Amino acid sequence: MIDLKAARTDADRWRAALARKGAAEAFDVLLEADERWRSLIPQVDELRTRTKLKGKPSPEKLEELQQVKDELKQLESELGQAEAERDRLALLVPNPPDDSVPDGETEDDVLVVRRVGEPPALERAK
To answer: Looking at residues 14-35, what average pLDDT do you find?
Structure first.
């Protein structure tokens, strides 16, 4: 799983590296989901702060408090969904390759640096 904080700070470099693995679009979708999640956090925190009253509330304050709690419940639900979506997308984005790794998507594209021992003969499944 990638470090979203590091990816946010240098998104262009991460996008270019992930494009080598064909995951640039998935990375952009992940950043959008992360931005959505991060935008909801201060809203939820602000509503949580407003639910804390000092002293005995008046009937008007109680009514306002109930509206705040309803809005908070809705936003917390949205936050949970946004977090789940962000986490799901994060699992789909691979780690960026090292700069020394050659580009490619198949076994034929790899560069064998060294081979130790003889590879076992495996039977292919039909």
So the answer is: 93
Domain annotation covers residue 117: no
CATH number at residue 17: 1.10.287
Report the pLDDT value the prediction gives residue 126, as an integer from 0 to 100.
67
State the helix-helix crossing angle for 24-50 and 59-92, rounded to 10 degrees. Answer: 160
Who has greater pLDDT, 126 or 28?
28
Q: Has residue 122 been placed in a domain? A: no
The burial class, CB within 10 Å (0-12 / 13-18 / 19+), for 126 is: exposed
Q: What share of the chain is helix, strand, coil (3-state, %, to 5)?
A: 65, 0, 35
Query: What is the pLDDT, as a whole number, of residue 29?
Result: 97
Which pair of tokens denotes residue 121? Answer: 């003969």
For residues 79 and 37, the answer to whether their CB atoms sit within 8 Å is yes
DSSP count for the chain of H helices, then E strands: 4, 0
Domain around 36:
4-97
Enter the pTM of the model.
0.76
Is 57 a domain residue? yes
Domain membership of residue 113 (yes or no) is no
